[in-house]
Amino acid sequence: MLSISAMTGVGLCAYFKPDLSPEDGHFHYRESTIGAQEWMGSGAEAHDLYGKKVTLAPFRQLAKGLAPDGSKLRQNAGDSSDAAWDLTFSHDKDPSALYGCGDEDTRAVVLAIHQLAVASALELAEERFAFCRVGRGGNDQVPAKLVAATFLHVDSRGGPQGPDPNIHTHVVVFNCGLCPDGKWRALRSHDLYRAKMALGALYRAECARLYRELGVRIIRNGDSYRFADVPTALRDEFSQRRRAILKRAKELRLTSSAALERISLALRPGKTEFDAHDLRLSWRARALRYGFGEQQARAVFQRRGIDVIRSQKTGAKRAVRQAVAECIARGHVFGEVDVLRIAAARCQAGEAGIRAISEEASRWIGADPRLHCLGKRAGYSLYTTEDNLRLEEGFLARATSKPKQGVKPPSAESIRSAAKRHALSRDQFDALIHITQRPGNQILTGKAGTGKTRTFSALREVFESHGSMVIGLAPTGRAARELESGSGIKSMTLARFLLKLAPTRRFRAMHHARMLVRAAFKKGTWRLKPMTLPEKAVIVVDEAAMASLADLDALLRHADKSGAKVIFSGDDRQLGPVNATTPFSELCRRIEPAALETIWRHQGEGAWMTQANELLHAGEVDAALREFALRDKIHVVGSDEDPIQSVCDDWLKLRTRDPSPNHSRRMKFESA
Questions:
Q1: Average pLDDT per run of 10 along the chain, which is 672 residues long?
Q2: How far, CA to CA in Å, does 564 sit from each of 268, 306, 339, 499, 558?
Q3: Running DSSP on this structure, what letter comes out for residue 601?
């Protein structure tokens, strides 16, 4: 797997402090780790660092955005706030277990495979996902060569029985890239984060391929792999932290991945030094409890000949075709990074490695006649199908077409009365006039905290007083509940509403099965009748930027038949679409939206809070943090990890105090 975290210059040294010794200027890891440190990336060649051991002096200089000779490599050189990104490639549990209980040769093979896969993944990241900003406002991008320092660890943080074997490499990618014009510039971190899942899957696919070529029996395990000859009990034995996290989650009645991540950080122990020899003896002793020792570890690597090694080209071609078909089936706009991620996940049994998958993806996407290139956005080529283009064109035509005589504009007097009762601000009143008085479908945009639900509350009152039914829809259940509680509009999810209007065959079968069960228990049953949309209905679609194109198009088709008025609401800069692409941005260009600008959520804190939120929304994080710091709203706790640990501890304390999911204090804490 691959995880990415941003690090400051000070944080880099603080994080590795227990592992460092400044005696000769080199990084020296504690004895329990291998201590392999190496400069990588094409950009390292420009500083005559590539392939050499990582030394303290150039490491500190690069963390500040400076070259080893002191020259500037980016505009904000000297500021170490955005020094680097730590890409941590973690080997799967089975090969780590082999390393823990195997002999010297077995350990060497496992480490070699891991390091080869890391090097291949970093090479691909540099080829496909490394860019620097150029041009006015940094809106354009150019490819960049990376400077990276790699650090290999072979154990995890300690557990009740000491550390578990856990092979992982920290790849510290510095915030500077060498561009084709010979200039150094700051990197665009967005590209690395966007490629995170694809790079992690490609790394695992490369590992699986290399193990398979050595005769290891590979079994696909979801989006990863496992070894058929490694006992499940041994895998669990070397997963102490995972067991502790799941146990704590069960106690707190939590299941979400976000909650598990918080618990993981909260239960994370500090680094501790262990003697390498003693640690390996401990691992072997624990493995022998399950009858798995050095001999069994060696037996896992059984070169069995060509018959078990398929052609990489064949495996890559099959995986890429399936990945493209899956992207097309989802009906969304996708990029090559999406194809790489899905194809790599389908090669977790060793069918193909990084290079074969990457080359086949580039070839196939360019040759597939079903795909239409939409051009580049943020440095990436985006693709869709001709069917999807026609669907979007049809949706936009329906959304902007001349409305049928269904919902008539309410009177100005009723609007003024509702605005007064709901204490609407000036921009909220103007927005209410805009979306109620203009015929046809309308749009209301606004950032979080601008009072969209308050405006909808007044809208509901106005339209209901004129005989129209107001229906609230949202892409997610949580958004629908928030819309209903804030505005009083009876709301449900968009998917459920569409099923009520036009039940699918599967939905009808499920209803029939439920009725059979009710009849068996002598309970009342009822026929499934499709819902009819009232002629004068007003449909409010909240968080429309999250809704899929197919769902929005289906909704407009029903609205056109009944003459209903649809009001789209959202902020396309805040949330991405669920399940597929959304034409919300293009819709805002074709229909003039009513915009709410003033943020009211933090008015009690003063004007500074509103300004700080505006800065955060614009991406000016440093300027926003300065506003908080000037008012003593930032509390610094220890090193880089300690604030996260402190927040997680507080969250767990609140969760333990009252585990109810609707506990107001916990909800306030989580929404902060």
A1: 79 56 42 61 87 81 84 77 85 87 85 89 88 74 88 77 82 88 86 88 89 85 84 80 75 71 65 69 83 84 49 77 83 81 85 85 82 72 81 86 77 89 88 90 84 89 90 91 91 92 89 92 89 87 86 90 89 50 77 80 61 65 70 62 62 58 40 38
A2: 54, 65, 39, 18, 8
A3: T
Where does residue 558 fall: left (phi above 0), alpha (psi -120 to 50 degrees), or beta otherwise?
A: alpha
Query: Six-digit token pair at 195?
Result: 């490629």
Rounded Cα gap, residues 49 and 41, in angstroms: 9
H helical segments located in 472-602: 477-487, 494-501, 505-520, 549-562, 584-590
Relative to beta strand 334-335, strand 491-493 is unpaired
The closest alpha carbon to 172, from 153, 185, 155, belongs to: 153
In angstroms, the CA 293 to CA 290 distance is 9
Q: Is the entire prediction scored with pTM above 0.85?
A: no
CA–CA separation, 181 and 159 (whole Å): 50
DSSP string, 172-202: EEEEEEE-TTS-EE-B-HHHHHHTHHHHHHH
Exposed, middle or buried: residue 22 (CB in 10 Å: 0-12, 13-18, 19+)?
exposed
- Write the Ramachandran bin of 357: left for phi over 0, alpha for psi from -120 to 50, otherwise beta: alpha
Residue type, 633: K
Q: Cα(410)–Cα(463) distance, rounded to whole angstroms?
A: 7
What 3-state DSSP class applies to 334?
strand
Burial profile 149-158: b = 16 or more Cβ within 10 angstroms, e = fewer: bbbbbbbbeb
Please report where in the chains the tokens 């899956």 appear, as a residue: 326
Give phi and psi for 5, each to the nearest 5.
Answer: -145, 140
- Say whether 239 sits in a helix, a strand or coil: coil
Backbone angles phi, psi at 138, to 5 degrees: 65, 30
